[in-house]
Every structure is written in structure tokens, then in C-alpha cells.
Amino acid sequence: xxLLKRKHELTxxxxxxxxxxxxxxxxxxxxxxVYAVIGSNIMAFCKDSSISVWPRLFASAAMEYGVAGLxxxxxxxxxxxxxxxxxxxxxxxLKAVVGAVICFIPFIVFKMVSGQFEGYKPLSVMVTNxxxxxxxxxTIIGTLIIGLVWGFFEGFNYAVIAEIISRxxxxxxxxxxxxxxVAAVMGxxxxxxxxxxxxxxxxxxxxxxxxxxxxxxxxxxxxxxxVFAFIFIWNAF
Length: 237
Description:
The protein has eleven helices and no strands. By secondary structure, the chain is mostly helical.
């Protein structure tokens, strides 16, 4: 009995990783719960062009960062871990970017063939047009904020979550990883799902893109591919 008990006891590292996951989950769900309650009011506020673009940008950015960014930032600060420890480094950066782009090819082709492509618009959110109208300085600063929140943190968020789960539940299979699977499914569930024919195809190509992107991150040890994909592909189509 004692041997069985010891076998199932968690190591200090496993307990630490569990806490990290809980921190990320609770931070994200707390903000998401707030959005679920007052989301319609926030959306109406952000879309109201009669209001200055800056409070609308900061309001939408705060919600986005809260759901996809706040949790991993808390973990890195709490554990005194740098972003580089989760793959933001020079080594294999190009391989990671190229690999991520390849994984998104079915997603891109589907968007174009299905008639959903309305022009290539990287770093485009609901207030982007109003930023352009506010002048060149507003456009530059606003675009940097959009790139940081909707591009960098959203893409990196998936990379960190996948990495933490992978460390907690390691596998030796080259093409299957629990962290990659959970993060990819999470990415699908946090976006609208339609169960008609086009909706199901969209779900499949989205899963291929996210799962492939994260498998590439695992094999290269580099997360820049995830960031690149969200800045120049995911939020551009």
C-alpha cells in the first residue's frame, strides 16, 4: 500500500506545473466571465465611432489580454521565468515561422475558396479603421498595441499553455502531445463554431493549423512561429 501511495504522489515539479495551469485557467475564466456578463455593453462601446478611439481600443485590448495573456504573465512573474524559457529565442526561429505558415495553408486556402476572404488585413480589429482616421501617430501606436495584444500575447499564450501541459504530462510520440492537443482544442472552443458543412470544414482546417503550429513549436523549441501566425495569418484573414 505504501508503495502504491508513493507511486501516485506528485513531485514538487508536477505540483508547481499544476499550480501554473490553475493560475492561467482562473485568470482567463475570470475575465471571460466578466465578458460573458457585460460583453454586449463592451462591444457596443467599442463599436461606437462617436467615442474617442483610444478608450475603445484600451477596453477591447484589456479584455483580450485578460483572456489570452494575463495568466501566462502572472505565471512568468511569479516563477521568475523569462519568456525566452518558453521559446522566444533566436535558435530555430526561421524554422518555426516557416513551419507554422505551412500548417496554416489549408486554413488560408479554405478561407479563399469558401468566399470568406475579404482582403488581407493583418492587425485588423474593430477599431482599426478609426485609428487610421485619427492620424499617422495614432495609427502607428494603435497598431503596435494591437500587434502586442492580439498578435504576440494571443499566439504566445497557446505556446506557453501547450508547453506547461507537455511538461506536466510528457509523451514520447513525435506527432502527439497532450499540451498541443489541449491548446488546439481550446483555441477552437474560444471561437464561434458552426455545424453546417462549411463550419465543420472550418473547424477541421483550424484544428490542423493550431495543432500543427504547436507541434512545430515543440520540435523546434521556438515559439516565434505561433506569434507570427497570429499576427500575419490568424488575425489577417
